Amino acid sequence: MNRFAVVVTLLALAGAAAPPTPPKPVALPRMVIDGTINPAVAGFVHESIGRAEADGAPALLIELDTPGGLLDSMRAIVKDILAARVPVIVWVAPSGAEAGSAGVFITLAAHIAAMAPGTNIGAAHPVGGGGEDIQGKLGEKIVNATASFSEAIARQRGRNVEWAAQAVRESKAITAEEAARRNVVDFVARDLAELVQRADGRRVDVAGERRVLALANAVRGADGHVRTEDYRMRLSQQVLNVIAHPNIASLLMIAGLLGLYIEMTHPGVVFPGVAGAICLLLAFAAFQVLPVNTTGLALLVLGAALLVAEAFLPTFGVLGVGGLVAFVLGFLFLFDTAETGLAVSRPLVLGVGGAAAAAMLLIATVVVRSQWRRPRTGIEGLLGEVGVVKRPVAPPADGTVLVHGEYWTAASDDALAQDERVEVTAVEGLRLRVRRARR
């Protein structure tokens, strides 16, 4: 019994003396916003925050470089960040990047706001879609509402409220170093390693709960490097992100209206009308006139209508190709994952689209070959056919030839003997004109 007690004691002491196993490092989720703020970016941020929360990530890093964007999309992003149950770090990077206009509000809303050297932030005065000032009472209301919004965000995060209002009302812009000095952002970080080191240990308010960020040991690997996991946009978000650029969205709207105008003034041209309808729907989605999933449904209906019309109208594939394009875009936009949690599988979309394209190509190939093939029936089918003389032809007298299993009266410029092979060169009513077949 005493021996057993000694063994147990020794094992307990050995366990107590053994060094604790260091926690396995996790990856720091990172998403990059490089471009304008639009519905695609808003949906991307919403999904990324939800994904980071579900994965139990220590924080979500947003690497930001934007000249600004849509006010509604910016507000949606800010609301998601303020309500996030995972700390959100906004880092204006790399050097040369900016957090302009809508980027100011996103940076101010972050739990930790940082900037890389050589970056700037500010110039958040609201403007119209073409960059013009909004005049009159409407402009005054928008400026006042936006300024109060920036003040509220800065106050909630303990940042410079006065500058936040000046960035909106006076379009103030400052460098990274000045932003850190004036408490617009928390600090300046040259690289990701410094960012993690300086953010580690800071107290932040996450969904009403005070937390201490524990990043340095959590995300650093054995080699000392910060481990990251890049979040990327879905295919539909990538498409929407491209078309939501103000210049591209404007071009789509112009192309859509021009295409429909050409089709109405020149009925039967087909291509301008098909392209115009698709461009117009995409422009509506880019300008947020239609919700993304509503645009997807409209594109699906348009694609189905065009594919059905292709079966009845001689458009030589124009309607079919347009219908296929609309169908694929509709599948991509149909389910708004940010709202429903559902999405159409990319391989499914590509598979269905590829199968439909292959079927259309096969049908088009068969049709083209049939158009090029020499006729086999009727008068045209007799031209070039080879027959046999059954009754000699002695010009100017006619003879008889057997062609296609039929006896025909035949005339020729040359004398043709019986059983000689002849070739049909013309059809003159019920008489064939023939010549000696070439050997």
Write up this protein:
The protein has about 450 residues and is of the alpha/beta class. The protein folds into 3 domains: about 30-235, 2-enoyl-CoA Hydratase, Chain A, domain 1 (Alpha-Beta Complex), CATH 3.90.226.10; about 240-370, no CATH class; about 380-435, OB fold (Dihydrolipoamide Acetyltransferase, E2P). About 50% of the residues lie in helices and about 15% in strands. It contains 17 helices and 16 strands. The strands form 4 sheets. Strands 8-5-3-2-1-11 form a 6-stranded parallel sheet, with helices on both faces. β9 (about 205) and β10 (about 210) form a beta hairpin.
Sketch the major β-sheet: 6 strands, parallel
Radius of gyration: 37 Å
Biggest sheet: strands side by side, in what order? 8-5-3-2-1-11
Report the portion of residues in β strands.
15-25%
Q: Examine the secondary-structure arrangement and name the CATH architecture of the largest domain.
A: Alpha-Beta Complex
Q: Care to count the β-strands? A: 16
The CATH superfamily of the largest domain is: 2-enoyl-CoA Hydratase, Chain A, domain 1
Helix content: 40-55%
* Terminal residue distance: 116 Å
Summing up helix and strand content along with how strands pair, one would put the structural category as alpha/beta
> Mean pLDDT, as a whole number?
83
Question: Could you say which overall geometry the principal axes of the C-alpha atoms support?
Answer: elongated
**Helical stretch tally:** 17
